[in-house]
Amino acid sequence: MKDLGFASKIAAQYNDVPKEKWSDWRWQLSHRLNSVEDFEQILQLSESEKKGLSKSDLFRVDITPYFVSLIDPNDPDDPIRKQVIPLEGEIVPFTGMMDDSLAEDRDSPVPGLVHRYPDRALMLVTTQCASYCRYCTRSRIVGDPMETFSKAEFNAQIEYLKRTPQIRDVLLSGGDPLTLKPSILEELLTRLREIPHIEIIRLGTRTPVFMPMRVTDELCDMLSQFHPLWMNIHVNHPNEITTELAEACDKLSRAGIPLGNQSVLLAGVNDCVHIQRKLVHDLVKIRVRPYYLYQCDLVPGAGHFRTPVSKGIEIIEGLRGHTSGYAIPTFVVDAPGGGGKIPVGPTYLISQSDHKIVLRNYEGYITAYEEPDTYQKHDVKNCQYCQSKRQELGQSGIHGLLEGESFGIIPQHFLETHSRSEEQHRLRGDASKWKPLGIGSEE
Ligand SMILES: *Cc1c(COP(=O)(O)O)cnc(C)c1O
Question: pTM for the full model?
Fold first, then answer.
């Protein structure tokens, strides 16, 4: 393969590991680093890192030698180091912090299966990862080797998918599905493929980044039996893009798997337009399409990684127009309380009248677009696609309002508040009838 020009920075300490061992993913897994003693062979640990590594109540630490070898030992602020090595004070509570900030547990009809959107479901197939990210959005369940899904739970997930024909897209995540025993992953994919209404299967995995040697020819052959299969990897910083990762992605692409990337916006790691631009350029060079850039979730451990949402908007402002459209991810806030991903970005629509809209481009150039005055409306009655659409009650959303199915979306307690009879007034005067409201209140 062509030399893509990425320098592999294998730490001198690993130079004496034979190549066969280094490039064996099982060796990588069984030689993960997790203690002060392990890391001190390689890095000068700070006091806070030492204390973090000695605490037993922190989220699990385990990092492959390959990923550790990407850390620059001379840089205490190394962006890879910050993602995986714990700090003593990482679990500082902050306003808004929640264990399950995306309310995934509430959206799970059976344990481990999150069915939030109309036509797709997220299947948590394992609690294990190749290495553990300090800002993990699922630290409430991930990492504990005892807390993994049972055969019975697997079966219940599959049964739910079978009896829910609106699900056409199943996303395998966890934990990391590529840490499953190969035979178990194959069985799972086989069982999903037997369900006729499942059109696409996706894998969400950071294994190619933590351990690119896991992407073997056998794995690619196995996966390619289950097309259409898509994959999202998770790269946050250009330093994670190595020759080894490039090779792994090349293999996956040749196996016919379209690759995307999901990254998380992290303070001190990638909260910079220029780092992000280099990241997305390096990703498209290895044929990985930036998919989402996530605002950091409100979970314990992520406090010191959070940036203002406006930082993400600034990054998108610095990408759109400035670089290839293929290289631009969608910046999203995963709604606290479980509303799903909400895209946020700069505003390009400046104004509008009954015949014109005014737009601005990335350079600040302002233009007016004349709207057509002879638009023949789409013929809904004679459109077979419009006529055959199906929507679950309550999920037609804002688009449903546009289609005229209903006249509004009514907030909690709206109807009571506006039934202003004398009796209602009297009750509202009574302070004991007032209850604080918030996400998670059951009424
Ligand atoms: C992210 C996510 C999906 C997939 O969303 P896409 O926007 O289709 O990538 C599905 N279900 C849940 C619960 C999710 O969090």
Answer: 0.91
